[in-house]
Every structure is written in structure tokens, then in C-alpha cells.
Write a structure and sequence with these properties.
Chain lengths: ~400, ~230
């Protein structure tokens, strides 16, 4: 291969501006591919995190109660109208066992039991309806990262403490340290001290939840020892639906993934993924066509030299490899430069594009796998692009080529 | 009797066979060249000299007849076998020197060795330097062809043709675009290599002055050998 390397490198060097331009074009194309590939995943994850707020990846609830009509026996006339059951607040059956089983399941990051139900929060003359949510803080933050959303106070719940959202706090005129009254249909309630205030970035979510300790919620909602749902955080965000389906087959409860609960978001994300895939594909195609056309021109320019090499005793296979190698070299150098430029672009755009709360939408990450695959892909792309020119060069008739 | 390097028997060449424009340019050529010969091929333009040289150089296929290269039939061999035979047995010098412009004079001379052995060895390097010194380019060996005069380029081409010590060097008008003085120098160089290395030469030329200095003159006219005379030597 030494001969092929020597001649290919010399030909590329001789190409001068032609080589510089095609490497630059390849670099630009690959930089954008790397940029898109690098930040798309982060951007989607960020979007999902922001949209879901405190929704878990997977939630397990008690199955709905269904009214069963009477058994229809022969010769018996039954009334056909069946009224749907009113869904009372119930506990997930044997949730401690479920929690332990989920924690032992591979791919599960955190499990959090939650007792949530409707209630009222009042301060002075103002009162608002909320979802009273009983949590075990250490477990809950592992699933929802509520601790990152705290804007005042600290997320440390003692019995008699409550954590509310910014908009609810404003409605009630309450600040950290103030007392509010929580009550439900089944309990006259008690006074709770606001321990912290959270901001989920959406007004309706900031009015929705009042967090208390799990025992406090169980007392308020008349769910002694029970939980209304078990929330699960898993490793693979986009594998949530599959995970939920597998779990559903194992437990007598209702299992729902974020993907089903937010199907529009999921569809939008899927479309985005397909679109970027298309953009990347066409960029790669444009790069390949560029490389192929430059090499075809090069074959024409070097017809005489190819003829001399053939006359001197270079077989067709070697001429073929000389040009395939040139394609691969253009691809590899474009990929190396393009990866560097793509990384720089990601870093710059990560600084420029920010969410309205000022946090970056994505963080430039150095992903060796991405760059490894990019270089490998670009080499293959260069090789494929070079196939036609290389075959053309190899098929040249030396006698004719020399006569030129 | 030794086996000739090339041995053509009744070789014919027809372009565009089987079409209305079919044209036979060589009508049964018998020609053998043996080790150490210094032969000229002369003839008017269009007599088929270049075609014959390309056939001998395995760059074209004969339409009919036999061709033995060092006793081995090669007329119908496939492209790879013919290419290998070119590398191992033949050297080429063309009229327009045809050096690779991106390689220095020395690298041009080293290329056949790289092709054959896959590496530049110290011996090859020494051999190439020696050849370039022998053609009077010891000083200019690291220059690119574009920096050399026509005569110098042709001398590099000769050194390259001799790099792998071929049995036969085919030269197509090697002095065709050189002035008389330079042409004499280049011709003398070919002669010297013929004498010192016993390399056989087959030189196509238009120049009767140079033809007169060959040991053997083969004349081609309208695709037929009309004269094959061996002089003195």
C-alpha cells in the first residue's frame, strides 16, 4: 500500500486549491452534521424536562374501578343500563412491595411513592384549590428534580410544613415562614408553615401542587398508610413507553409513561428527529457528490500520469486504490476538521441559545463516540464517493492516455 | 541459441474490427530482439511505428499472431499479467518525457521500485542516485520536473526506464522534441547504457542521422517490415 499512499498524497497535494476547497466543503458539511447530532438529543431532553415539569417518566396508579353488569342467565331479564363507577381515591395495593420490586428492576433510577388528592389551601380570605401531594422528599427529588426548582426557602419537609409554587404564593400573599391552612373534603385540616416556594416555569403548574409529608397527606386525604401513585424515573427517557408496557404486563395496576400522557409532545419530537435525520442525510449526500465531482475532474486532469503509471507497470487495482484512498483521505480530514468546528459551534451556540430563565438549553459535551463514528462514517462516505472516479481511472487505456 | 527478449510472429493489428471502418494497420509482422541489441525502428508517419511499439510494450493487444516475451506467450494474457510483465521486463521512454510532475527527479526514478517492492530501500535509493549521476543529474535530483529543461527531463525519464534493470527499453522518439545538440547527448546516453549494462534498446526515430548510429535498423512501411539490416557490429 506504500505506493498507493505515496501517489494518493502527492496527487492531493498537487491538486492545491482544488483539494483545499473540497476539504473545506467536507469540513463545513460535517461540522453541521456533528452540531445537529450533538445538540439535538440535549435539546429534546431539555424540552421534555421543562414541559413535563414534575411529571415522572412512568407512573403507576390503581386500576380504575369498573361496574360489572349482573351475570346474564338464560330466561332472566336484566336491566341493560350500566352506570360508570365514580372513581374514589384509593391506594395502590401493596405499594411497598411494588416499590421494592421496581427498585430492583434494571434501568430504574429512582422510585417515589406519592399520595395526592384534591384539597383547598386558604390564607385569610383567599382560598385556592390545589392538589395536596404527599411526598418523601429524598425519593421525590430523585424522580422529578423538584429541588432544582426551589426559588425560596429549602426543600426540607417536617410534619406541618408545606411547599407551594410562586403563583399560588402570590395569590395567597404568602411568603416562606407564613402559615396557610390546608383542608380536604374529608378533613377540616390544619395550619401548615410554608417552608419553600418552587417555580416550574409554567403558571398553572405553579398553582397546582401543595407538597406536604407523606403521612400528612395520608391523614388529609383519608388514605391511611396508602399512596395514590408510585412514580418512577428510568435511565432511558425515550424507552419509557416500552418500559411501561413491560411493567403493565406484570402488575395489576394502571401504568402510564410520559410518552402516552403527552402524545402530542412525543409526536412533535419524533417529527423533529425525522427532520434532522433528513437534513443530515442530505448534507452527507451533498458532501459525497462534491468529493465525487472533484475526483472525476482529477482523473481527467491526471489522465496522462495515470497512463504513465500503467505503462510503468501499475496494475488496475493499484490505480483504483490510489483514487479510493484520495476519497477516504478527503473524508477523514474533513471529518477531523469538521468535528472540531462542530464542537466549537455547539459550544458557541450553547452560550447564545438560552432558556428564558437564563439557563443554557444544552451544554456542549465532548462525545468521543460521536466523533469516532463521524470520522468512520466520513471515511466510508469518501470511499463510496470515490468508487466511480476510481473505476474510471482504473479503466483508462494506457496507450490512449499516453498519446494525449 | 538464446531465447530472444521479444519474438513477434505474424502479428496483425486491426482497429475497429468487424465495423465498416475497420482498418488493418499492421499486416503480419515478424520481429525478434535479443539481449544487448541496439535497434532503431524507422518509417514514415502513419506506417504503424507507434502501434507496433505499443504492441511490443503490451499496451495494446494484437488482433492476430503470436507474441513470445522471453519465450512466454503473452499475446492473449490478461491485463494484470501483461502489467506485471511490463514492470519486470520492459522500460519505456516517451517523446514527451512524461515524468510525474508532483514527484522530484529522484522520486520519479524510485517509483518503479516502490511499485515492485512496496518500499524505498537503501539499495534502491543508492541505485537511483547512481543512475541520475550517470545521466549527469547528480546535482538536480531533488528538483521537480517543471524546474528542469527538456533535455534534463528526458534524461530523468531514461534513468527511470532503467531503474529496475529491464531487459528491453522501448523508446518512442526519445529525441523528438530536443535540439540537435541535446538529442546527440541523449542518444549517446542510451548507447552507453546499452554497452555498459547489456540492456537491449528499440528506438523509434525519424532522424536518419541517429538511425545511422544504430546496430540494426528496422524499416516499417504501410504496416509491413520492408527492411531489417544489421550493420557492422
Amino acid at each position: 500500500m506504500r505506493f498507493e499512499w505515496t501517489v494518493a498524497l502527492r496527487f492531493l497535494r498537487e491538486g492545491g486549491m482544488q483539494t483545499v476547497l473540497i476539504v473545506a466543503g467536507t469540513t463545513a458539511g460535517i461540522a453541521v452534521i456533528v452540531f445537529i447530532s450533538g445538540f439535538l438529543g440535549d435539546l429534546q431532553r431539555d424540552l421534555i424536562r421543562r414541559t413535563l415539569g414534575v411529571q415522572p417518566h412512568v407512573i403507576v396508579r390503581p386500576a380504575e374501578e369498573v361496574a360489572r353488569p349482573l351475570h346474564r342467565a338464560a330466561g332472566v331479564t336484566a336491566l341493560d343500563q350500566v352506570q360508570a363507577r365514580a372513581q374514589r381515591l384509593r391506594s395502590v395495593d401493596q405499594w411497598q412491595a411494588l416499590q421494592a420490586a421496581l427498585e430492583a428492576t434494571p434501568g430504574v433510577r429512582a422510585v417515589s411513592p406519592v399520595a395526592a388528592g384534591p384539597g383547598l389551601v386558604a390564607r385569610g380570605d383567599a382560598n385556592r384549590s390545589v392538589t395536596i401531594t404527599g411526598i418523601v422528599p429524598a425519593r421525590y427529588v430523585a424522580v422529578t428534580r423538584l429541588d432544582e426548582k426551589i426559588v425560596a426557602g429549602a426543600l426540607r419537609l417536617n410534619p406541618g410544613d408545606v411547599v407551594i409554587g410562586t403563583d399560588l404564593a402570590r395569590d395567597l400573599g404568602a411568603a416562606v415562614g407564613d402559615k396557610v391552612r390546608l383542608s380536604t373534603a374529608t378533613s377540616p385540616g390544619d395550619a401548615y408553615q410554608v417552608r419553600a416556594i418552587y417555580d416550574l416555569g409554567q403558571r398553572n403548574l405553579n398553582r397546582a401542587y401543595a407538597y406536604v409529608t407523606l403521612p400528612a397527606a395520608q391523614a388529609l386525604l383519608n388514605l391511611p398508610g396508602g399512596v395514590s401513585s408510585v412514580e418512577v424515573s428510568i435511565e432511558d427517557l425515550f424507552g419509557a413507553e416500552e418500559f411501561a408496557e413491560r411493567l403493565q404486563a406484570r402488575v395489576p395496576h394502571e401504568v402510564e409513561s410520559w410518552m402516552r400522557a403527552n402524545s402530542q409532545l412525543r409526536t412533535a419530537l419524533n417529527n423533529q428527529t425525522v427532520m434532522t435525520l433528513l437534513v443530515r442525510f442530505f448534507l452527507a449526500l451533498v458532501v459525497a457528490i462534491g468529493v465525487a465531482s472533484v475526483l472525476i475532474v482529477s482523473v481527467v486532469q491526471k489522465t496522462r500520469e495515470i497512463g504513465i503509471l500503467r505503462a510503468m507497470g501499475a496494475p488496475r487495482g493499484r490505480i483504483l486504490r490510489v483514487f479510493l484512498l484520495q476519497g477516504a483521505l478527503i473524508g477523514a480530514s474533513g471529518a477531523a476538521l469538521g468535528s472540531a468546528c462542530g464542537y466549537a459551534l455547539t459550544a458557541v451556540m450553547g452560550e447564545v441559545l438560552r432558556a428564558d430563565d437564563g439557563t443554557p438549553l444544552f451544554i456542549a459535551q465532548f462525545s468521543p463516540a460521536l466523533y469516532g463514528y463521524t470520522v468512520l462514517g466520513a471515511v466510508v462516505l469518501g470511499l463510496i464517493a470515490a468508487v466511480m472516479p476510481a473505476r474510471r481511472a482504473a479503466r483508462l487505456d494506457p496507450a490512449e492516455a499516453i498519446r494525449l | 541459441m538464446t531465447i530472444p527478449i521479444i519474438d513477434l510472429r505474424g502479428v496483425r493489428k486491426t482497429y475497429n474490427p468487424g465495423t465498416p471502418v475497420a482498418a488493418e494497420v499492421l499486416h503480419g509482422i515478424d520481429l525478434a530482439v535479443s539481449e544487448g541489441e541496439f535497434a532503431c525502428l524507422i518509417g514514415p508517419s502513419g506506417s504503424g511505428k507507434s502501434t507496433l511499439l505499443n504492441l511490443i510494450g503490451l499496451l495494446e493487444w494484437p488482433s492476430a499472431g503470436d507474441y513470445l516475451l522471453k519465450g512466454r506467450p503473452i499475446a492473449q494474457a490478461d491485463d494484470d499479467e501483461r502489467t506485471r510483465a511490463r514492470l519486470e521486463t520492459l522500460g519505456f521512454v516517451f517523446q514527451f518525457h512524461h515524468l510525474l510532475p508532483a514527484f522530484t527527479a529522484l522520486e520519479n526514478v524510485l517509483l518503479p521500485g516502490l511499485m515492485r517492492y512496496g518500499a524505498y530501500t537503501t539499495e534502491q535509493r543508492a541505485g537511483a542516485v547512481e543512475l541520475l549521476s550517470a545521466v549527469g543529474l547528480g546535482e538536480a535530483m531533488h528538483k521537480l520536473p517543471g524546474e528542469l529543461s527538456g533535455g534534463m527531463q528526458q534524461r530523468v525519464a531514461i534513468a527511470r526506464a532503467l531503474a529496475l534493470s529491464p531487459d528491453l527499453v522501448l523508446a518512442d522518439e526519445p529525441t523528438g522534441n530536443l535540439d540537435t545538440h541535446t538529442a546527440d547527448d541523449v542518444f549517446a546516453l542510451l548507447r552507453r547504457f546499452n554497452e555498459t549494462r547489456r540492456t537491449a534498446f528499440l528506438i523509434v526515430t525519424h532522424d536518419p542521422r541517429l538511425a545511422a548510429r544504430c546496430d540494426r535498423v528496422v524499416e516499417l512501411r504501410d504496416g509491413t517490415l520492408v527492411d531489417d539490416s544489421v550493420r557492422g557490429g
